[in-house]
Structures are given as structure tokens and as C-alpha cells.
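Ticket 4471: requesting a sanity check on a complex prediction with flavin mononucleotide. Repro inputs:
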Amino acid sequence: MINPQEFSEFAASRRSVRDFLPSPIDQGTMDAILTDAMTAPSWSNTRPYLVAIASGAQRERISRELLSRNKALAAAQTGGWMAKLRLLATFKSWPISDYRIVRPYPKELAVRSGRIGKALYALLGVERGDAVGRAKQWQRNYEFFGAPTELFIFTHSGLGEYSASDAGLFMQNLMLSAHARGLGTCAQGSVAIWARPIHREFEIPKGYKLLCGIAIGYASADPVNSFRAERLDISEIVAPSVIL
Ligand SMILES: Cc1cc2nc3c(=O)[nH]c(=O)nc-3n(C[C@H](O)[C@H](O)[C@H](O)COP(=O)(O)O)c2cc1C
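Returned C-alpha cells:
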């Protein structure tokens, strides 16, 4: 058995990687990571998820498509009414996700999200009002941060929220297994903004919806990978008892 101190250090040392080397992941390693991910607990052992694996030419094609949609959407968001009309007219780049992507965040959660965004942009030297700098970092999501492989996680809508919960457990096992093998990962809700181009690339049975992506590969030495997201104290998430 692994000792608790080692486990704590290992779990805490996993960090989202946002710049990857192009080095490919060999099939044996990918299979082992997925096998580990499958040992996560699951609602009635249903495993209501699917993973679609994009690398090589397919990864390039999906990335190109998402980059082009992101560019059109950004132009509409920052441009005048003509730019907005153009987006409406082509409709293609209009964000249509399988799951509702909640914006704005609830007030108490927006504070935490705001803190992480501020700290990440500060590390990257992107000023508060620097829309171009922010857009450039956001765009890296659609380059999959240079990762050789992008995973797309689909969940069966038939189990409601518990499908997403199962997928989360699967994803965490997957990311820890990758970490144990010297690979980095970054979960990416950003790639789920447009579901259609991803569905088009894989045979996805009816009922499965795109939840998010995971960039996976070997971390580069880029300073962005030295980012250390704040970790909250447990007192922030333990619900106090009501005195009855
Ligand atoms: C479901 C999910 C979606 C995420 N989407 C993105 C994303 O689109 N882009 C990104 O850079 N990070 C994304 N993240 C990474 C989080 O920002 C990161 O996990 C958090 O800041 C904590 O940092 P850590 O993973 O380094 O511990 C996502 C994480 C999760 C769990």
C-alpha cells in the first residue's frame, strides 16, 4: 500500500499543464492510463461515459475548426453590430454546447474563479485591460496547448447529473495515472462550447453528450507550467452543522 504522506504529495503535485511538447504518447501508455481511469467508482457500475481520442491529422483538423470558430466568435464579441450580424448570418460559429455552460458564475464562486484568472494572467504578464493578451491565452485552448492528443469526454444524458459525476471520477483517475507516468493534462471545458464539430469526428451513440476535453502529453519547460493554482483550505468546503 502507498503511504499516506506519499499519496498527499503525489495528489497535490498534479497541476494543470498549459504547454506541451509535441512528443506523441505511445499506445501502451494511453491504454494503461485509460485502464486506470476505468477503476474509478461508478453509479451502479454503469460507466456512462465515452472517451474520443484525437491525435495526428484528426487532432489538427479539430483544432483548426475550433480555432476558426473561436476567431469568428471573438470578432463578434469585440466588434460592432456588423461583426455580430456576420456571426448570426453564418451561424456556424455560434456556440452550441451539449451541456449548458453557465455564465456568469454564481457570485460566491465567481470570486474564486476571478482570483485564479488574475493570478494566471499575472504570471503570463497579461495586464488587466489587455484584451489581446487574454484572447491569445484563451486561443491556446483550441491549440490544445500544443498537446499531441486531445481527449473528448462524453456522458450519457440518461443518468442525469450522475453521468457527469461518474465522468469526473474517471477524469481524475485518468489525470492522476497520466501524472504518475510523467505526462501532464489539462481538463478543458472550453472545447465543449461547440459540440457539433466534435460529434462529427467520432461515432458517438445517441444519448451521449460532450462534457469537456482533456489535453494530454508531455509538459514543456514553458513558464506557464509553473503556475500554481491556489488551493483552498478545507474550512471553505466543509458545511457547518446547524445547532438544533
Ligand atoms: C471540468 C474542467 C474544465 C476546465 N476547463 C479549463 C479550460 O477550458 N482551460 C484551462 O486552461 N483550464 C481549465 N480547467 C483547469 C482548471 O482551471 C484547474 O483545474 C484549476 O484552476 C485548478 O488548478 P490545477 O488543476 O493546476 O490544480 C478545467 C478544469 C476542469 C475540472
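Notes from triage: Residues 56-78 form the longest helix (23 residues). Leaving this open until the requester confirms.
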